[in-house]
Amino acid sequence: MADEIRTVALLGGGVIGGGWAARFLLNGIDVRLYDPDPGAARTVGGMLENARRAYGRLTLAPLPSEGSLTFAGTPEEAVSGADFVQESAPEREGLKRALLAAASAAADPDVVFASSTSGLRPTRLQADMDRPGRFVVGHPFNPVYLLPLVELCGGERTAPETIERAAALYRAIGMRPLVLRKEVDAFVADRLLEALWREALWLVADDVATVAEVDDAIRFGAGLRWAFMGSFLTYRIAGGEAGMRHFIEQFGPALQLPWTRLTDVPELTGELVERVVAQSDEQAAGRSIRELERLRDDCLVSVIQGLRAHDAGAGAVLAGYERVLMAAAPPGPVRADDAPLRLHDAVVQPDWIDYNGHAHESRYLHVFGDATDALLRHIGVDPSGGGSYFTVETHLSHLDQARAQERVHVTTQLLGHDDKRLHVFHALYRTEDDVLLASAEQMLLHVDARTGRAGAAAAEVLARVARIADAHGALSRPDRAGRSIGLR
Fold first, then answer.
1. Could you give the CA distance from residue 288 to residue 438 in angstroms, rounded to a whole number?
2. Nearest Cα to 117, choosing from 145, 86, 75, 146?
3. Residues 207-232: pLDDT tens digits?
4. What is the set of domains in the chain, with CATH numbers?
């Protein structure tokens, strides 16, 4: 199904709907959005701005060209001709049912409908729909464009293939579907979160802790483990060599102790609400919602990238998503082989800029690394096929300054090769005036993934390299090629 999705209709453009819009758009999917709120365009625009910033830090894999965003005046207009529908209206059953009924009557008959509801049962939501078998809950988490989890829950009339089709789409846009075994209120994750939230409110209501202290207990403790290990695996480790059985034998009796008040709910009195609000305001320390969102996104990016290095948790999802992006990436604008190849274009991102007002020197290597990846795709290297080229030596020359939002591009010239090595020369230009900003001379070594040792590249790769080498042999050697560092 993922290959068939070109346009997604979004019904609702609040915090969740705006996050969906950003994720779909950054994955190259056009979005038609319906929301009667006149402020929806502003909300979605802010989400998309944050998402672009976060993705620029999250991955170096080439994203597809961004999809187009249009706003529809009615639900029927939004879903007309759409390939997939995601509903994210306010959490009121009557509103959602009426919206889904109207939209499903106007949509193409085989289009899947998914709801972002955080707790309403799908059987009730699909009751008034046209062709209710194509409905499923697809419950995401905020921020939708970064957190990979999406819970899938079908109702009594949901067809099994509906769940399969929705899961395929969500995987293609970098998410981790969790398919529920049976229909239940609030699904899995929110039931767990509700228990923690209820106990947190009691701790504040009983003046045991402030809201900041409750959050500290999570973020400096178990929250760090949960990011990659979850709950049950954490407890298994806590049981030592004897594992989960020993943990349950040792700590199971504590479940009978009055440690928590999970079966009792604190009354949200005016005094308690004001206390929580005042402490939350103090915790925010004057930071705007946009500042807090960007702090959240930056921290999530760092955690996910850290987990990626260990192929664990959300990091493993990111790694798989990057492999999909790399495989699907077009070769980009390419000159003929008788000129240096132009394989990589980029825009200087604001977070690349250092205290001097121009791109930090590490970002030049970042761009040249992307250019090398583009070259490998151009010559047909498939890392999953048994081997790839690794950069073993780089010589950078910084010649001019790159500033935020400037468009830049890289040209690549092949200086030499054999069956294991590529000697390449990259040149980074400001696109507007073709000023040379930096150069990088690199030696790449082909490594056989099966042995971990240097080995010859595949015959078809070497044939493409040879064709480029023949063409580039007639080019002048770059002036800065072969330079060494030293005082003159």
1. 38
2. 86
3. 999 999 999 999 989 998 898 888 88
4. 2-187 (3.40.50.720), 190-285 (1.10.1040.10), 331-472 (3.10.129.10)
